[in-house]
């Protein structure tokens, strides 16, 4: 876009938050980024207007949102630490900021909101009956956004599969389970079984989709939700195959993910506890339907498998 519009980004140093922020800036948006200590950031993007503040501080979020048309809520506690105490207060602060500024909230959604009763095809209308603690928090987060829409607070939820791509962190199955960042790919640990499909999402494609939907503001309902097809691995072999081709090692060993070790590590690690809870998402195929997205945009941004995977591995210093 060429007109001067301003977006507040919560989570601009994260994978999806940073990517959406960069794409918005490239489209002519002014980007305001909230961070607890922006002066400490070694490689911060100078295109952004950095504001010092904590997403847990309502006054700071409301002040940072003054005059903006968009609030990207991509803040995510690393390693799942203190999720129950942080996630919901932060979305409440964002809702308060949107109510004060009139901005639309944009939220990256996940499949954790759903239980097996909604499988195997997830649609925007599918019932959210999560099995896990994290899923229950995510579902409540969206419920609060929908409740706020009754008095005019606008939201956009873009739901995708497991993230991979530049900037993906240890919270991701790709960089936290299948490969080891900073090390050559000598072996892989795959969480699922051959024949079981899995839903992936390349971060730049998700960001591109969000930005294109944001630019459809006049067509969006007050509470809008869209699902992305992303990178659908129909039998559990496409991601592994793309990694092998990217590192030019067709005989890389692929081992089953050691699920048995998670109960042993769970008492000492919040991340391992959360990973253990998510195992149900690998036991049967789960696919996202993107009919609503196609009806709105005409197409879904999609980077070819090998290009997306090689770019991810390069960013993770695995190549």
UniProtKB/TrEMBL annotation:
Residues 7-218 form the NAD-dependent epimerase/dehydratase domain. Pfam families: Epimerase (PF01370). SUPFAM superfamilies: NAD(P)-binding Rossmann-fold domains. InterPro entries: Epimerase_deHydtase, NAD(P)-bd_dom_sf, NAD(P)-dependent_oxidoreduct. GO terms for cellular component: cytoplasm. GO terms for molecular function: aldehyde dehydrogenase (NAD+) activity. This is Nucleoside-diphosphate-sugar epimerase.
